[in-house]
Amino acid sequence: MRLFILITTLLICRSVSGGVVSFGGQYSIKVSSIAEQRFKTIYKQKYDFSCGSATLASLLSFHYDDVVNELNVFKDMFEHGNQEKIKHQGFSLLDMKHYLSRRGYHANGFKISLQQLSSAQVPAITIINNNGYMHFVIIKGSTDDAVLVGDPAIGLKSIKKTKFEEMWGNRILFVIQDRKEIAANHYINDQQWDHQIRANLGLAIDHASLGLFNVLQPSSVDF
Questions:
Q1: Most CB contacts within 10 A, which of 18, 91, 105, 160?
Q2: Residue 51 among the catalytic residues
Q3: Listed GO cellular component terms (predicted)?
């Protein structure tokens, strides 16, 4: 009997990795692997230094219903940006701002708290320090004690707020300022969806400073 259970379990696990679990006859259930679930609302970056383009493409596709792919975002920002700087330092928040402007969005970087972002009910791109590895991620939602992060390297991850605060050195949140109603529909918190954008996001970071925020120089400006 134990052998039968073991064999059955192994067969089901094989079927899960293939995407469909069959129970015989006409009954089958389509399933997703854990890895697929982690990347359901965040694109997995395809290149070592493409976390910026993968993050921005994910923000538009999964939070603003504006579907774009990482490669197109990468090509556009590289074509219009400082290519030598990008080759050595990667994309900056200013590159993202210019890309969004070309696409008809108004976006800026803000030095605000997580609570203010949660009140605004909009996602944000920021840079975190994960064991010395500087990385663009999306803050996709929050609760009183946790932050839901979309990371193009590892997928969705819930991080305790105290831990996130330690990783979040520059305290800059890059936010799209229009189409807030769409963004609110995709923001995740511990209450019901809130379609009313309540927070005053405060004063925007100036354009020159945005250009200094990339994964290799995240803290070069003292605000």
A1: 91
A2: yes
A3: membrane
A 10 A CB-CB count for 55 gives 27
142: left (phi over 0), alpha (psi -120 to 50) or beta: beta
155: CB partners within 8 A, 6+ apart:
35, 37, 38, 39, 42, 44
Architecture of domain 37-210: Alpha-Beta Complex (3.90)
* Residues in contact with 212: Cβ distance below 8 Å, sequence separation at least 6, in sequence order: 92, 220, 221
At residue 164, the pLDDT reads 94
Quote the pLDDT of residue 193: 29
**Among the options 41, 50, 51, 90, which is catalytic?**
51
3-state secondary structure of 106: coil
Is the torsion defined by CA of 180, 181, 186, 187 positive or negative? Answer: positive
Do residues 176 and 197 make contact, with C-beta atoms less than 8 angstroms apart? no
Q: How far apart are CA 5 and CA 189, in angstroms?
A: 40
CA–CA distance, 122 with 116 (Å, rounded to integer):
10
Token code pair at residue 73: 């975002």
